[in-house]
Amino acid sequence: MTLTSFGPANRIQRSAETHPLTWRLRDDGEAVWLDEYQAKNGYAAARKAFADMDQDAIVQTVKDAGLKGRGGAGFPTGVKWGLMPKDESINIRYLLCNADEMEPNTWKDRMLMEQLPHLLIEGMLISARALKTYRGYIFLRGEYTTAAKHLNRAVEEAKAAGLLGKNILGSGFDFELFVHTGAGRYICGEETALINSLEGRRANPRSKPPFPAAVGVWGKPTCVNNVETLCNVPAIIADGVDWYKSLAREGSEDMGTKLMGFSGKVKNPGLWELPFGVTGRELFEDYAGGMRDGFKLKAWQPGGAGTGFLLPEHLDAQMYAGGIAKVGTRMGTGLAMAVDDSVNMVSLLRNMEQFFARESCGFCTPCRDGLPWSVKLLMAIEEGRGQPGDIETLLGLVGFLGPGKTFCAHAPGAVEPLGSAIKYFRPEFEAGIAPVSAAVPPLARPIVVGA
User: Which PANTHER family does this chain map to (predicted)?
Assistant: First the structure.
C-alpha cells in the first residue's frame, strides 16, 4: 500500500491553501529534510509564534480555530491546553506526542513522521512555547523503525539550526525534544498508559482525576497530543483561524482537514488529506476507486478496528465526528476499511477480538475476562459449535464492556464492532449455532475465562 496523499490518477493538486498537512510532500515519497522544509516556508509559523505572539495568544488561536484531537477521541485541543496550570512557579512541564499508532487499519501518523518529520517538530515547538514546557517526548511505536530514524535525524538538524535546545530563536526559551520508542503495546495509545510506560512502569491506564495536566510524567504537569493534531498547529498559526475554519465542508462541525484513507479490496487503497465533511461515498468511490472487480462492498468501518461496522447505504454520511455519529458509530482515526462479500463476519470478528483481548492491560475484570470470553464464543460459532444463547451472551458482553463500565476506553472500543456486526449480520452468527439436539446443557458446559 502506498502512503500518499494523492487522489485518483494524481488529479488532486495540493497547495498550502487547501492541504496544510501534505502540500510539502515530495512526489517520490522521500523525506523532506530541513533545507527543503524551510524553503517551503517551514518554521515560519514558529518564528511568528516566537516573535509576535505570547503564550496565551497561541492557546487562544488554537482554541478559536476549533482544532480537535486527531487520535480518535476528538477532544478540543485548545481546551486541553487551557487545562495546564498557569502558575509560573511550576517550571517543570512536559509535552508528549502520542505516536504509538497501533490501531489496526491506521497508518496516517506513520506517513507524517516518515516524510515530514520537521512538520511534527515545528508543531511541537510552537505547542511547547504555548504550554511553557521545557522538554518533549515523541512516544513512538517500536515497529516504526523508519520513522524513528527520520525523526532522530530531523531533531539533530533542528538542534544544529538553533530551533531546538537553548535560547531558541533568541527568545530565551529552552526546549529539548527526544524520540522514545515503545515496547509494542496497543494500550499505550491511552495517554496515561503511555505516561506510565515512559516512566518505565507497566503500561496500565491511571485513574483520572488527577488528569495529566495536573499530575503527569514524573508527577509534573503534562500535555499529550497526537501526531496529526500537532502537525495542524503550524498552519493555524501561520494562516489564521478564519482560513482554517473555511477548509471544512458545509455542515461539518469539525474544522480543517483530516488525513483519511481506505484499505481492503478497493482499487486504489491509500491515504488522502481531505476536508472534514466529505462523504464516505466520495472517499470510497472518488478516491479509493470502489471495490476491485469481482468483489462487492459488504460493510465498512469508518475509522479503525475499534469503530462499528456500517453498511453500503451509510456511505452518504459526512466524514466528521457528528456525521458518523448520526449513523451509529464513531469517526475514530478516519481511516476506513472495506469488507468485501467474501468475508465471513464471524471470522473477522474473532480475529479482531483476539487482537483486543491480547492487548488488554489486564487491570480491570470486565476487559481482562470479558474479551477472552468473547473470543471463545466466537471461535465456537465460527467452527459450528455455538450453543443456543451464545449470541445473547455476546450481546450481554457488549453491554457489560461498554462506555463507563471499564477503567479505560479499550474494552468499549473492542466490543463496538462486535455489537454492530451482530446487529447487521446476525444470520451469519446464527449459522454457527449447533442444532438443539447436539447442544450441551448450559450448566454442563464450562466456560473458562482468561485462559
Answer: NADH-QUINONE OXIDOREDUCTASE SUBUNIT F
